From TrEMBL:
Keyword line: Oxidoreductase
Keyword Plastid found: no
InterPro entries in the record: Ald_DH/histidinol_DH, Ald_DH_C, Ald_DH_N, Aldehyde_DH_dom, Aldehyde_DH_Superfamily, ALDH_KGSADH
Protein's recorded name: Aldehyde dehydrogenase
Keyword Transferase: no
Organism whose genome encodes this protein: Pseudoalteromonas aliena
Pfam families tied to this protein: Aldedh
Residues of the Aldehyde dehydrogenase domain: 17-487
GO molecular function, one term: oxidoreductase activity, acting on the aldehyde or oxo group of donors, NAD or NADP as acceptor
Amino acid sequence: MTLTGQSLIAGQWLGNSDNGEFKAFSPAHNVPLETNFFNISVNELELSINEAENAFLAYRKTTFEQRALFLDCIAEQIIVLGDELLTLTQQETNLPLARLQGERMRTVNQLKAFAQVLRESPDSPMGLKVIDEADNSRQPLPKPRTELNYLPLGPVAVFGASNFPYAFSTLGGDTAAALAAGCPVIVKNHDAHPGTGELMARAALAAIKICAMPLGVFAMVQSKSYNISHVLVAAPAIKAVGFTGSLSVANALKATMVKRYEAIPFYAELGSINPQIILPNKAREQGARIAQTLCQSMLMGNGQFCTSPGLWLVPTGCKGFEEEVADWIGNSLSDTLLTPSIIKSFKYATSQRSNMDQVSLLAKGKLEHDFHANAHVFACSVDTYLATLALHDEVFGPAALIVRYENEQQLLLIIDKLEGQLTASLHGTQDDLDSAQCLTEMLQYKVGRLITNQMPTGVEVCGSMNHGGPFPSSTNVRSTSVGTHAMLRFLRPICYQS
Ligand code: NAP
């Protein structure tokens, strides 16, 4: 399939070299790929926004069944893209084929899950309608009939992440949730996988045509220029923003959004260090095994998960734990990261930690190529951790920090100082967990998902999932970006009184 390098706007492929162009990058070979992708102009962006506004008038009137058919059709059209999609994404990301196959299925199932939710409750999203009947005999005043239901917000801007080229990207969770809610979507495609974005947009366009949806219901814009992202989130017609990525880019977009006349919701799902707390009995009984599982979880996808375990709280003298970590990490092979800028940030952060006096480098993996990232595990004391704010930041890639604690009091001090997290895990025997109630109580106020005796990597897509958490793991603590409840982010309540 030949790529055009263009953007999908109002059902047409637009863009040329007038506004500059960029290439995708091959992490495996450390060279740019061939295709030129064209930065769209501000005029073209404005066209996509106007078309989304027009499309909203028709799309919001579609029945839930029509939207469900549309979502199912997008899912089918992703499958129709076939192996070419996988091959191209692999070139752009160097993520393993099996991982991409799994993520493609997850993305397809995510779309179908929203379709199913729409079908299960055809006259109110997720059956949330509430009716209070009238009571004319009520004294001193009659009670009116009131009905609470939900309306779509309007056009939504979506920014995907580099590390999930399908599930958190062009036709990922935010897009599926917004379309299910009845909102047109404009995706600013991630420039780490522009070809993947183009193929996904083809799937969306095919589904729009098959289902006779308004052409402006979905647009995908390509640009390496930051300005396009800022013009998009500032546009008055945009009524919500879904973003997956780093805190620094989220802050930059937020700075633009605060200048808007109309404040709109900004659902940014960000990074996290996902603390892993090993309780004393578990550490004593299974220290080496936990060490091994933590290393495997951290090395998964070369650490490129927002749920990667980055902070390991381990009791001092935990037999075999650090030896096992040193062994696993020391024998691990380096691998690529998604983009040169992610590699650069990883190398900067790990060299900073390596140069800290109170922090030791417990183990590092073998570096096969300079443009690879090798695993790093550092260690420090509780006092150092508490005194060094830089150690609280996410290092995106294969890195983790062990903090050696002496007693529960110290654990409580650390938990108290933790910033908001997507997840945290408690690893303990039943005795450990029974005596850790105070800790659990504190910890739940810091996280979006509290896990017992399991690793944080792997996010189940289901109705009971919460993927989000207190700031800075996300900018909206009251919502999830994974699972069917994600649709609620793009709806607003309305009360009909009669
Ligand atoms: P990112 O660092 O946020 O970058 C996103 C895009 O924004 C890049 O194209 C970047 O371009 C661009 N950008 C940089 N500065 C900008 C500015 N001032 N204004 C507008 N755009 C700007 O994201 P990423 O590299 O895709 O993702 C890695 C992060 O996402 C990690 O922190 C990870 O934990 C998080 N993540 C979170 C979740 C979740 O569900 N919570 C899921 C996946 C990933 P350049 O590359 O040119 O800088």
